[in-house]
């Protein structure tokens, strides 16, 4: 059975709405985590480079590229693990990696953080697929947006427009685009915001005034409909 969304979503129209009302630089990015080779639509090429997940997101966001990437094309071992492409490296699992990078005061503090990083089961994912939302030729699992805080404010309001409540974001300042915005969103089915991480800001072009958000593709139409309302509501900035 095809891994598809049983909801009609006009991707091009949704992307145009997000760009217009949020003032996005680049495109929202559609991401799919496929279980096996048959899940890759015909005609989508494999990325020729070996780079990080966050860089792949930027290729789709800024350059309009559409491609898939197997484990061998993922340069960042931590990102590949979070996305279910390969096993966690021993140095990352033990806490050694980030401790030696000076991210934590103790090895134990690092281990506590690693143990709580959202991730898919090892080798649950065969490949990741990327596309600018307006041109996606597949049914994505996650829509990822990189934008300034004001846009994130409107995405927050749009996510809560129908049912209300609170958004509880989880982040750790590491593995932002791979775990916080992609894996966690996929696993929980709820939006998540992240401030980015050193790696994603260094390698993928996330600007100092930008944040990261992922939300499940199933609520894309709901979010885009709400954005039109909350951005024009009395008192909206």
Relative helix content: 25-40%
Mean pLDDT level: 95
* Integer tally of domains: 1
The run of helices and strands is HEHEHHHHEEHHEHEH
How many β-strands, per DSSP?
Answer: 6
Low-confidence stretches: none
Shape: globular
- Biggest pleated-sheet summary: 6 strands, antiparallel
Query: What proportion strand?
Result: 5-15%
Protein structure class: alpha+beta
> Distance N terminus to C terminus?
45 Å
The spatial strand order of the largest sheet comes to: 2-3-1-4-6-5
How many helical elements? 10
Rg: 17 Å
Description:
This protein has helices at residues 11-22, 53-63, 77-82, 90-94, 96-100, 107-114, 149-160, 176-188, 198-203, 220-230, and strands spanning 29-34, 67-70, 127-132, 142-147, 192-194, 211-216. The protein is of the alpha+beta class and 237 residues long. It has one domain (18-230). Helix 7 (149-160) packs across helix 10. The longest helix has 13 residues, at 176-188. The radius of gyration is 17 Å and the shape is globular.
Task: Produce the secondary structure layout.
Layout: H1 11-22, E1 29-34, H2 53-63, E2 67-70, H3 77-82, H4 90-94, H5 96-100, H6 107-114, E3 127-132, E4 142-147, H7 149-160, H8 176-188, E5 192-194, H9 198-203, E6 211-216, H10 220-230
């Amino acid at each position: 059975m095809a891994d598809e969304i049983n909801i009609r979503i006009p991707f091009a129209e949704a992307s145009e709405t997000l760009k217009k009302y949020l003032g996005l630089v680049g495109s929202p990015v559609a991401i799919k985590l496929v279980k096996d080779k048959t899940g890759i639509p015909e005609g989508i090429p494999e990325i020729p480079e070996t780079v990080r997940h966050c860089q792949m997101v930027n290729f789709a966001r800024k350059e309009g590229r559409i491609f898939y990437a197997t484990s061998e094309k993922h340069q960042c071992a931590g990102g590949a693990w979070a996305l279910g492409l390969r096993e966690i490296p021993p140095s990352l699992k033990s806490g050694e990696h980030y401790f030696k990078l000076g991210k934590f005061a103790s090895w134990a503090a690092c281990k506590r953080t690693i143990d709580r990083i959202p991730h898919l089961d090892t080798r649950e994912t065969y490949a990741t697929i990327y596309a600018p939302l307006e041109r996606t030729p597949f049914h994505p699992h996650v829509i990822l947006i990189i934008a300034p805080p004001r846009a994130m404010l409107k995405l927050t309001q749009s996510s809560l427009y129908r049912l209300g409540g609170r958004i509880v974001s989880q982040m750790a300042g590491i593995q932002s685009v791979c775990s916080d915005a992609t894996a966690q969103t996929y696993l929980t089915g709820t939006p998540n915001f992240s401030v980015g991480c050193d790696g994603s800001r260094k390698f993928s072009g996330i600007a100092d005034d930008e944040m990261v958000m992922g939300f499940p593709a199933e609520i894309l139409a709901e979010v885009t409909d709400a954005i039109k309302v909350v951005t024009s509501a009395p008192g909206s900035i």
